[in-house]
Amino acid sequence: MKESDGARAPGQEYRWALPSVLLGDGEEGRPVKRSTRDWIVDTLMFALACVLTLLTLPEISQVPEPLQATEQVLGALACASLWLRRRWPVTLALALTVLSTGLVLVGGASAVAMFTVAVHRPFRISAPVALANIVTLFPFAYFRPTPDLGFWGTFVLGASIVTALFAWGLMVRARRQLVWSLRVQADTAAEQAKHLERERIAREMHDVLAHRLSILSLHAGALEFRPDAKPAEIARAAAAIRESAHHALQDLRGVIGVLRHSAGDDDVPDRPQPTLADVSTLVAEGRQAGMDVALILPDQEGVPDALGRNAYRIVQEALTNARKHAAGAPVTVRVSGGPGDGLTVEVRNPVGVRLGPRIPGAGAGLIGLTERAELSGGRLEHGPRPDGDFLVKAWLPWTT
């Protein structure tokens, strides 16, 4: 990818930059910034090429002295040219491959250049370069055979070295690709975790605030429809409104606190979560706000916290919907079940009964409850029944 390809999101830019950092991929001739590690590796590669050149120096003793001097100069230049191997890897490898056809002292630098191409370029580019190295071994083995090995021995030895270096380069590249892939997967998993956490916080904010604000609306509606109420009743209603607003602010502050911590900290302090035992408190708040709520709740002992929390949220949202759409109607909350059978939550209220103004809603509460139930392995159904009631019924698994 070119730098001029347009603006990208921070995460996307990071993922696209990773292959260049790990694999060194880039355009031929493009300037490359070396890190400290790159300088160390380049120095070692230069030193390795120099050592290989010195080891092959005795093999030029059979050629005339002028040719020996020329080959020594070209061998030194070939080693020095390896400092360009990151910027022009393919060009340098092909040039050294051509020189190594008839020059012994260029072989070490040519091997390093070919290895560089295998690491820094994809297989479709590095394979032809390696094949060119093997092809040039034919004239080299013909004109400069090793006395002890002959033509075929020299060719097989050179081809084996080229193949081994090429395979080593492919392994290094594959490992770097694996590291890049694991990093991308880790980044993706982290982004998904953040997204799921934001969704959880959004659901909780909806559940909590919708419940509190609907109670507040009921108290305010009572004051609106009874302007001639006694001062003591008005004072009690105002106190209830103040208390509901105070609880709403506390809940909002707690949820936002979790949201702020989750943006930068690894250990997110979570708010105290409700359990099945808190359903009684929830119903009591509704009764205090003027709702007619009947509660049938079994013994809460042994109910897992996660199961109780899901049941609480379902009752909370169902009561909120009842206050919004059927204010003044009697509501029945029934919780039943046990280990192995699962926990069944039913909230029922008559349809079409509403005293006072309708509280607006976004319509996302029941969708969120359905998702909550399905994520826990259960199911939820809602809608009007033949007997004229509106029913919210959920079944949640309760493993033994």
Automatic annotation (TrEMBL):
Residue span, DUF7134 domain: 37-176
Q: What class of enzyme is it?
A: transferase
Q: Which PANTHER family match?
A: NITRATE/NITRITE SENSOR PROTEIN NARX-RELATED, NITRATE_NITRITE SENSOR PROTEIN NARQ
Protein name, UniProt field: histidine kinase
Q: Does the keyword Protein biosynthesis apply?
A: no
Protein keywords? ATP-binding, Kinase, Membrane, Nucleotide-binding, Phosphoprotein, Transferase, Transmembrane, Transmembrane helix, Two-component regulatory system
List the Gene3D superfamilies hit by this protein, alphabetically.
Answer: 1.20.5.1930, Histidine kinase-like ATPase, C-terminal domain (3.30.565.10)
CDD domains linked to this entry: HATPase_UhpB-NarQ-NarX-like (cd16917)
Q: Mind telling me which InterPro entries this protein's record contains?
A: DUF7134 (IPR055558), HATPase_C_sf (IPR036890), Sensor_HK_TwoCompSys (IPR050482), Sig_transdc_His_kin_sub3_dim/P (IPR011712)
Listed under catalytic activity are: ATP + protein L-histidine = ADP + protein N-phospho-L-histidine
